[in-house]
Amino acid sequence: xxxxxxxxxxxxxxxxxxxxxxxxxxxxxxxxxxxxxxxxxxxxxxxxxxxxxxxxxxxxxxxxxxxxxxxxxxxxxxxxxxxxxxxxxxxxxxxxxxxxxxxxxxxxxxxxxxxxxxxxxxxxxxxxxxxxxxxxxxxxxxxxxxxxxxxxxxxxxxxxxxxxxxxxxxxxxxxxxxxxxxxxxxxxxxxxxxxxxxxxxxxxxxxxxxxxxxxxxxxxxxxxxxxxxxxxxxxxxxxxxxxxxxxxxxxxxxxxxxxxxxxxxxxxxxxxxxxxxxxxxxxxxxxxxxxxxxxxxxxxxxxxxxxxxxxxxxxxxx
Length: 318
Ligand code: ADP
Ligand code: MG
Hints:
The structure is a single chain. By secondary structure, the chain is of the alpha+beta class. It is built from 10 helices and 16 strands. It has helices at residues 44-52, 74-77, 94-104, 109-123, 138-146, 154-160, 178-183, 188-193, 220-223, 230-235, and strands at 2-11, 21-29, 34-37, 59-64, 67-68, 150-151, 163-168, 171-176, 200-204, 207-211, 217-218, 241-253, 257-265, 273-279, 291-297, 302-305. It has a 5-stranded antiparallel beta sheet. Strands 2-1-4-5 form a 4-stranded antiparallel beta sheet, with helices on one face. The longest helix is centred in the middle third of the chain and has 15 residues, at 109-123. Magnesium ion binds at residues 44-45, 150.
């Protein structure tokens, strides 16, 4: 049974204005770690405040354990939710508060301690893990709580969440496992919000074609040599590939990774700006202004409706 469920949940702070939360249908499952992810102002806090009973919905229903709780006070809802500063468990240490939901879902000790340590490091609260909430400042308490449920940090959300709810302008764009939302984005917002650098999007007739920077690489990497005959592009086990000509404008060297910026040239997608991301172990040189044979595995191409931005069926790239 769903622990927390919302049906058509909507909040308009002012009449006539765009909703802070619009028509949200959510179902969190037993023991699941569900993370809300979206840019600032996308409605995460308002959604959680409505669930907790701190904000009255304009319309829609909230169910806890299958029972509609719209008319219940926060206290009556009795939901064990770690909620910014005001809902840490006072008898638990910061560490205890962070691992609690992981423990509740049956994660083994070693793994949850590792996750908690990692999250604490990310938020700069490692030195505070032994303290109780009353021994922490407001901001520190907030970070302990924020280590868990609401985040705009996608790395954190992807690492911590069993499922991720991607929101923008009050609406849920997609709910899925971290790999589902990353590999199979429902629309162009999800495709570009997740991932850094974001998915390349290029217009092509009625559709937008998307491919991740890590799937856009030099053809020379396929065969270990600079000049590659067309048939390798077709026969390699990852293939078939779509060959593309990439004019490099500049390179960003990030230690483990190299990010190449530039634009496509030639028949397909001429002049479209795109990004390639590869491991620094690839030694090839890419001078500014040089032209290179690149490729994308055909199966890594995602197609979006140009008008609505939502996923659509594959089209041939003639
Ligand atoms: P997030 O937590 O994702 O950053 P919020 O839920 O805080 O987003 O905000 C969603 C939208 O609702 C924003 O446009 C914000 O300005 C608006 N909003 C939030 N709280 C109030 C309020 N009390 N009165 C009016 N507008 C609000
Ligand atoms: Mg917020």
